[in-house]
Design goal:
By secondary structure, the protein is α/β, with parallel strands linked by helices. The chain has ten helices and seven strands. Helix 1 crosses helix 9, helix 3 packs parallel to helix 4 and helix 4 runs parallel beside helix 6.
Length: 248
């Protein structure tokens, strides 16, 4: 029997990378899963990969209208919810001097506003003993150049994990964060010039105490631990980063 047969989960931003890996692991462990993505193309790709056992819907985390509709859909299809993983997030690399208002607003809309109001809508559906997991980042403690807005948005999520955790204690809902380091999601291959990819990867591996990238599946395992197994843990942040936030 699957470990979490009968459990129900929502993955926000689950059409690629860590969110997709988490949705797949939840599915394989018997969980009924509802996954969101911002584009129809991404949703269709995830549907093909996840199969009919997982429902994947278009929902823009920056839209309060979409968030309200998602809440209604989750209530109709799942009823109660045992786990929520907020994986949706974007990064826009820019120096402090080059950062525009549009970059700032876009990153905070996706990485902070979206998670806040999504949780506001989904919390009433959550069962006693359920778990929320927010995806933060080692950037919120490392002070990395070209990442000021992204890092600030992830620090806001870290703070949100604490305040939501405290506020939701009477409901019996735990709130934690998973903090990824360098994870091989393919984003470098998609976002960097081809001749720069291998050099960047080599530098990142060299700067990591474990000398490698993590995998989306390693993040997924940490998410399931925080969502279901860490029953005496709330308000915490679990670093899954090869030691880079603690040892470098």
């Amino acid at each position: 029997m699957a470990r979490y047969e009968g459990k129900r989960a929502v993955v926000i931003g689950g059409t690629s990378g860590m969110g997709l890996a988490t949705a797949r692991l939840l599915r394989d462990d018997g969980v009924s899963v509802l996954v969101t993505g911002r584009t129809e193309e991404g949703v269709e790709t995830a549907r093909r990969q996840l199969g009919d056992q997982v429902e994947v819907v278009v929902s823009d985390t920056t839209s309060l209208v979409d968030i309200a509709a998602l809440g209604e859909h989750a209530e109709e299809r799942l009823g109660r919810v045992d786990a929520v993983f907020v994986s949706a997030g974007i990064s826009r690399a820019a120096s402090v001097e080059e950062t525009s208002e549009d970059i700032f607003d876009e990153v905070f809309a996706v990485n902070v506003k979206g998670p806040y109001f999504t949780l506001q809508r989904l919390v009433p559906l959550m069962a006693e003993g359920s778990g929320i997991v927010l995806a933060t980042s080692v950037s919120n403690v490392k002070g990395q150049p070209m990442n000021s807005v992204y890092a600030a948005s992830k620090a806001a999520l870290r703070s949100m994990a604490r305040t939501f955790a405290r506020e939701l204690l009477p409901r019996g809902v735990r709130v934690n964060a998973v903090s990824p380091g360098p994870i091989d999601t393919g984003i470098l291959d998609r976002s960097l010039p081809k001749d720069a990819v291998e050099g960047t990867k080599r530098e990142m591996r060299g700067n990591n105490p474990m000398g490698r990238f993590g995998t989306p599946e390693e993040i997924a395992a940490a998410v399931l631990f925080l969502a279901f197994e860490a029953t005496f843990t709330t308000g915490s942040e679990l670093a899954v980063d090869g030691g880079v936030s603690q040892l470098v």
